[in-house]
Every structure is written in structure tokens, then in C-alpha cells.
Predict the structure.
Amino acid sequence: MKYSFLLILVFFVLSNSAFAQKTSKINLKNIGIKAKISTPDGIEAKKLKWETVIGDALYFQRKESSDIREASKIKPAFAIEIEENKNYTIAKKKASIESNSVNKLEEFLTDKPNLLFYKTTVFRTEQYHFAYQVKIGGLIYSLENAKGINFTKEQIETMIKSAESLK
């Protein structure tokens, strides 16, 4: 009896987690990438002036706002910058993270040859980030959370799950 209650509780928690969201497969050919990625429902891929982003509507609303103060109040939950970059390596990214004197590394939560998930502190504010590298069709792509947004640990975990689905 005790175990069945625990099993039901675990199922309830997992079914309500970020990983249990409804997902969609997005074809990235509209941004010049011959691949697909699984994301939570409602996510789009767009080429912007300075970056290519897979993000939610709030991210694009924030980017299009002409009022910096108003834009900073918009809190997207999902925004991955993706870039083809033959010179990108996780080792170089790790060295850059470790040497950053403003956004100071607290710890690597995941440190793999193709994935970094890490916590930093900037101006006494805790932040979570990720960097992922994948090779598709002979091309190397880097995926990172969008900069300038304070994502939660759970939001970054959702983005990592999506990044790892890129094929």
C-alpha cells in the first residue's frame, strides 16, 4: 500500500514537470539548417538581425520591443541561440566560462565533451546556462541559452533536452 502511494506520487510529480510538456518537432530548414528539433509546443525558429534563435513568443516580443525598460520586464521561458561554427568547441567554451570575471562560475552541473550545464553568479544573482555542440551533415552547430535573460534551472534543463534532440 505504501509503495503504490509513492508510485502514484512520483507519477504525478513527473507528469507535471517541465519534461512532461507537450512537445512538437520543428523543422529548421526555414533558418537554413537541415535538421529537426523537439521543443515544447509554441516554440518558433527565426533568423534575427544578429542571431538565429529557437524561442517562445515572449522572447521575440522582447527582442522587437523598442523600449529597453519594458523589454526587460518580459520574461521568456525558452530561447536557444543556434549557430553554425566550425571553430566552436566545448573545451574553448569551458575555458571562456572559467575565465569570465564578471559572470563568475559557481559550478558545472554537467561537464561532458559536447555539453556544459553550469551555474554562475553575476552581481549577486544566480544564473543557469548551457552550451551544447553537435555535428549534423558535416557541419558543427553550437547551441546556447540566449544571453541577457535569467532562466531558471528547470528552464535550462528543458532547453538542454531540446538541444540534445537536434538531428
Q: What stands out?
A: The longest helix spans residues 2-15. The mean pLDDT is 87. The two ends are 43 Å apart (CA to CA).
